[in-house]
Amino acid sequence: MVSKSDIVQRRAAQLDEFAAVLPMDRRDRLAEILTDQDLETLRHLVREGTGENTLRAIASDLAYLETWALAATGTSLPWPAPEALLLKFVAHHLWDPRRRETDPEHGMPAEVAAVLQQVNVLRASGPHSPNTVRRRLANWSTLTKWRGLEGAFASPALKAAIRLAVRAVPRQRRRKSAKAITGDVLAKLLATCSGDSLPDLRDRAILMVAFASGGRRRSEVAGLRMEQLTMEAPVIGEGETPLPSLAIHLGRTKNSGASQDEVVYLTGRPVDALNAWLASTKIDSGSVFRAIDRWGNISRRALDPKAVNNIVKQRVRMAGLEVGEFSAHGLRSGYLTEAANRGIPLAEAMEQSRHRSVQQASVYYNNAERRSGKAARLLS
């Protein structure tokens, strides 16, 4: 008889084939949660060329749903899920903290939350964001369809439950990073990693590459591979000084078309910082940014996207800034904010940031104009 540990080890080995797109530091936990059919679904998505960010989100949501179903019902996630289970999911995740004070049974049961927290898939102590719930339901629906099944995701009762739950608990929309990491803030962060140690070289390259390439998402930075980098002819800067230039092929991104290869360029100091890191570690293939252990050994695997956020926050702390006000997403918003402050045309900045929506990107420009406009300076 095959033991559970043997099954987990086999699944963990199978998950290695997704090392380029899934968070492999969580491989063993995913192997315990996901079923053989789940692994086959992920393999199908890889073969179909599903974008890396999309695949990560689906794998993460699938693991969450499997864990939640087992904790809430005592059985694995059924396919297709009945309408009652979908409504239970909404009730467990969209609830009113005020009612919870007088009704302990309202919302997610404490024993279910304890199980999810124990395996580190639940971090929030309050209700989930409506967008998170909608995304997980959407991925749940997609996974159901890929199995050739029909679910109750278009049910009027489910739509009404979500609508009423959101209306009952108004939530203020929070930015992913409270403050943008603009040029002046970035300079302070870079000052904390100006040395020649491996962590300094890596963190300096991460900060400069992420910012200068248009404010790349942390998943794009963590997943960057040598095959995506192409050296370009030097660019002539001020004083006829040649500046090193490099192209980053992003492939399919969150905002690109299905077959579009997004390309952004680095010029000057960011290229020097990246080359210094690669030269010091002799990395010539595979993942560009990797973990460094206490003895200075370089991992063979890519950084987890969360590690990029941790690096940003560590440098924020070292710079004497308020850690809670900045995150890795601040590099993305900071790039467009800095471009607006320097008078760079919106279209040119969007070519680098790869924002698809002019409306979204223009928010940073509108804010910059409002800050410097006459209406904001009546008493200056």
TrEMBL record:
What Gene3D superfamilies is this protein classified in? Answer: 1.10.150.130, Intergrase catalytic core
What's a Pfam family this protein contains? Answer: Phage_integrase
UniProt key word Transferase: no
**Which InterPro entries does the UniProt entry name for this protein?**
DNA_brk_join_enz, Integrase-like_cat_sf, Integrase_catalytic, Integrase_recombinase_N, Tyrosine_recombinase_XerCD
* Keyword Chloroplast assigned: no
Q: Which SUPFAM superfamilies match?
A: DNA breaking-rejoining enzymes, lambda integrase-like, N-terminal domain
Q: Name one GO biological process term.
A: chromosome segregation
Task: Drop me one GO molecular function for this one.
Answer: DNA binding
Assigned keywords, A-Z = Chromosome partition, DNA integration, DNA recombination, DNA-binding, Plasmid
Domain (Tyr recombinase): give its ranges: 176-379
PANTHER family associated with the record: PHAGE INTEGRASE-RELATED, TYROSINE RECOMBINASE XERC
Name used for this protein in its record: Site-specific integrase
Native organism taxonomy: Bacteria, Pseudomonadati, Pseudomonadota, Alphaproteobacteria, Hyphomicrobiales
